[in-house]
């Protein structure tokens, strides 16, 4: 019985997290929050959102050239960046290589494994973010995160 209720609550948390990533305001707040924990985590939020847009593009039956451009844009930004490090998100090298090998295959699943990896990684920070956010009015969240970022920067410099 206990195991079932735990699973139900975690599946509803997963749904809430997914909705949050699709909401521009909450996603931006969450992205800033996880950026304080590690540079690549902030990129992970953006990657997840861009892959969602890519999947929507695939399902909208737009032309192949547009789909290919979106694949290339995601790869150039997150998987094989001209700016070091080449891999700008926190996924295993094998996943990155697989994406590069399959970059010409159009379809909604090219980034699936990487997106699931990123989702699982980011989801670990969701409860901490919810707790952080619960103590603040929504218009003060970004301000509080900026302050935290400032303190972190001062510590590095000091």
TrEMBL record:
GO terms for cellular component: cytoplasm; nucleus. Residues 16-122 form the RGS domain. SMART domains: RGS (SM00315). It comes from the Eukaryota. GO terms for biological process: regulation of signal transduction. GO terms for molecular function: G-protein alpha-subunit binding. It holds the Pfam family RGS. InterPro entries: RGS, Rgs22, RGS22_RGS_fourth, RGS_sf, RGS_subdomain_2. This is Regulator of G-protein signaling 22.
């Amino acid at each position: 019985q206990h195991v079932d209720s735990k699973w139900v609550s975690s599946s509803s948390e997963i749904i809430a997290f997914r909705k949050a990533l699709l909401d521009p305001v909450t996603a931006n707040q969450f992205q800033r929050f996880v950026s304080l924990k590690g540079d690549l985590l902030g990129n992970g939020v953006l990657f997840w959102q861009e892959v969602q847009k890519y999947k929507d593009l695939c399902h909208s039956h737009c032309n192949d050239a547009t789909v290919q451009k979106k694949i290339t844009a995601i790869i150039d930004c997150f998987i094989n960046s001209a700016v070091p490090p080449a891999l700008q998100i926190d996924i295993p090298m094998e996943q990155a290589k697989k994406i590069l090998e399959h970059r010409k295959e159009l379809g909604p699943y090219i980034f699936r494994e990487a997106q699931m990896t990123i989702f699982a990684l980011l989801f670990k920070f969701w409860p901490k973010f919810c707790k952080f956010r619960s103590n603040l009015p929504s218009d003060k969240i970004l301000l509080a995160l900026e302050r935290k970022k400032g303190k972190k920067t001062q510590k590095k410099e000091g």
